[in-house]
Design goal:
This protein is mainly alpha-helical and about 475 residues long. It is built from 17 helices and eight strands. The chain has a two-stranded antiparallel ribbon. The protein has a two-stranded antiparallel ribbon with strand order 3-4. Strands 5-6 form a two-stranded parallel ribbon. Helix 2 crosses helix 8.
Length: about 475
C-alpha cells in the first residue's frame, strides 16, 4: 500500500494514499479498533447534510469564499448520495473518543480531500481546502453531532411509522374476520370467561396504534437543533445570523420542520430528547413482543398445545423431528425486540452521563437508536407480511375450549350466586366434566335464563 504523509498537532502520520480520510481518522483507527462497527448510513447522510448547510450558510454570510464553498457542497452531496463511494470512507469505530470528535473529523477530512480533488489538487493538500478551517467553519463537534443524531433519527422514523400503520391495518382486518369466533378467554393462563377472537385482535390493533402515537409525540422534540451553538452553546466563532441561516437551509434540504433550539445550552448539554424517543421505541418493542408471544402461545401444539391460531408455515422447524413447524417469524421479532430493549438501556446510561456543558456519550447513542429503529422496522414488516397476514383461526378448537371453560360459570353469578357457581366449577374440574353436564345433573338447566346463557355464548362476550 502506498501512503502520503499528513501532519496534525501531534505530528506526522502515514495515511493510505487512496484514502479520502486523513491523519486524524488514522489516529482514531489506531486508537479505537474496538468493534468493527461503523455508523449507519442515515447518520452519515445527516452529517453530510449538516456540512452542506454550514457551507451554504457561511457563503451567504460572507465567511467562506464561494470557490471553496462550492466544492465543499459538491463533496457533501456526494457523501449524502454515496457517489464515488464516499460513505465507505467514514470508517471510525462507533466506540471512540467522547462526543464524536473522531467521527466529525473523519467527515471533515473526507469532504476536504474530495473538494481538493474537484479543484484539481492532490489529497492531503489542505492549503486548498482545510478540514477544520473550511469544512468545519463555524462548527464544533458539540453542535454537529447532536444535530446529526436528531436528523438521522428523523430520517429513519417514517419507515417505522409506516410499518406500524400497516401492522395496525392488518390486525384490524383480522379482528373483523374473527369477530364471530368464540373462544375461551384466559387470565393468569387459566380458564376465564368467553371472548371473541376478533376482540382479542382489536386489542392488539389498539396497542400498536397507541405505540405509534407515542413515537410520533416523542419525535416532536427532535426538531429543535443546536447547530450554531459551537462548543458550549455561546456560538463562538459563528456569524450572528449563522444559526438561523444554517437551520433554515437544513429545513429546506430535508423537508423536515426543524428549528433553532429555543435554548442552545439545553440542547448542547442534554440528550434527554433522544432518550425520550428511545423510550417510546422501547415501549413499542415491549408491546409487539407481547403480541408475538401471544401468537406463539395460541399457535402452540398443534396436538398438545392451544392450537387456536394457525400461523403460516415458513420453513421446517427441526433438524431431527420430521414435519415440525415453528412460529419462526414471531421468534425473530422477539429477538429483535430484546435487542432494542437492551439498546434503550445503553441510551439511558449514556443520557445520564452528560456533564456540565456537554454529553460526551453521543456516538453510541446515535448509532444505537438509529439501529434500533431500523431493525425494528425491518422485523415488524417481515412479521406483518410473513405471519400476521396469513393467520387463520381453528374455529372448531376455539369453540370447544370456550364450551369446556369453567370460566363460563361467571355468567351464572347473578342467577345462582358466586358460592354456588364456585361449587359447580369444583365439581366439573373434579369429574372432568363440562359445566353443562354438571348443571344438567344438578337440574340447573331447567332455569330458562341459565339454559339461554349456554345456548348463546356470543351473548357472554358483551355487557348483559
Amino acid at each position: 500500500m502506498r501512503y502520503r504523509i499528513e501532519k496534525d498537532s501531534l505530528g506526522p502520520k502515514k495515511v493510505p494514499s487512496k484514502a479520502y480520510y486523513g491523519v486524524q481518522t488514522v489516529r482514531a483507527l489506531e486508537n479505537f479498533p474496538v468493534s468493527r462497527l461503523t455508523f449507519p448510513v442515515a447518520m452519515i447522510r445527516a452529517l453530510g447534510t449538516v456540512k452542506l448547510a454550514a457551507a451554504q450558510a457561511n457563503i451567504r454570510l460572507g465567511r467562506l469564499d464561494s470557490r471553496r464553498g462550492r466544492v465543499i457542497q459538491q463533496a457533501a452531496r456526494e457523501l449524502i448520495t454515496n457517489r464515488n463511494g464516499l460513505q465507505q470512507q467514514i470508517v471510525v469505530d462507533v466506540y471512540q473518543a467522547g462526543a464524536g470528535t473522531s467521527l466529525n473529523m473523519n467527515v471533515n477530512e473526507v469532504l476536504a480531500n474530495r473538494a481538493i480533488e474537484i479543484l484539481g489538487g492532490r489529497r492531503g493538500d489542505y492549503s486548498k481546502v482545510h478540514p477544520n478551517d473550511h469544512v468545519n467553519m463555524a462548527q464544533s463537534t458539540n453542535d454537529v453531532i447532536p444535530t446529526s443524531i436528531r436528523l438521522a433519527i428523523l430520517f429513519v422514523l417514517p419507515e417505522l411509522i409506516e410499518v406500524l400503520e400497516d401492522l395496525e391495518k392488518v390486525l384490524k382486518v383480522k379482528a373483523k374476520a374473527f369477530d364471530r369466533v368464540i373462544k375461551s378467554g384466559r387470565t393468569h393462563l387459566q380458564d376465564a370467561v368467553p371472548i371473541r377472537l376478533g376482540q382479542e385482535f382489536s386489542g392488539y390493533a389498539r396497542i400498536v396504534e397507541k405505540a405509534r402515537g407515542r413515537i410520533l409525540q416523542s419525535q416532536e422534540w427532535l426538531y429543535e437543533l443546536n447547530l450554531g451553538a459551537t462548543a458550549v452553546g455561546t456560538g463562538l466563532n459563528s456569524h450572528p445570523r449563522y444559526r438561523a441561516t444554517a437551520v433554515g437551509i437544513l429545513r429546506r434540504e430535508t423537508k423536515l420542520p426543524v428549528v433553532p433550539a429555543r435554548n442552545l445550552f439545553e440542547v448542547t448539554q442534554s440528550m434527554s430528547d433522544v432518550a425520550h424517543v428511545s423510550h417510546s421505541v422501547r415501549g413499542l418493542a415491549l408491546d409487539v413482543t407481547k403480541i408475538a408471544n401471544d401468537f406463539r402461545l395460541l399457535n402452540s401444539g398443534p396436538r398438545t398445545g392451544f392450537g387456536e391460531l394457525e400461523l403460516p408455515a415458513m420453513q421446517p422447524g427441526s433438524s431431527i423431528m420430521p414435519g415440525k413447524v415453528n412460529p419462526v417469524m414471531a421468534e425473530m421479532l422477539n429477538q429483535v425486540c430484546f435487542h432494542v430493549i437492551g439498546h434503550d438501556l445503553t441510551i439511558a446510561f449514556a443520557a445520564q452521563a452528560g456533564q456540565l456543558e456537554l454529553n460526551v456519550m453521543m456516538p453510541v447513542m446515535g448509532h444505537t437508536l438509529v439501529t434500533s429503529v431500523q431493525i425494528l422496522s425491518n422485523g415488524i414488516r417481515l412479521f406483518t407480511d410473513r405471519c400476521v397476514r396469513g393467520i387463520r383461526a381453528d374455529v372448531k378448537r376455539c369453540r370447544q375450549y370456550a364450551e369446556r371453560s369453567v370460566g363460563l360459570a361467571t355468567a351464572l353469578n347473578p342467577t345462582i350466586g358466586y358460592q354456588k357457581a364456585a361449587e359447580l366449577v369444583k365439581q366439573a374440574v373434579k369429574t372432568d366434566a363440562s359445566l353443562r353436564q354438571v348443571m344438567e345433573e344438578w337440574g340447573l338447566l331447567k332455569n330458562p335464563k341459565i339454559a339461554h346463557l349456554l345456548d348463546d355464548p356470543f351473548a357472554l362476550t358483551k355487557p348483559s
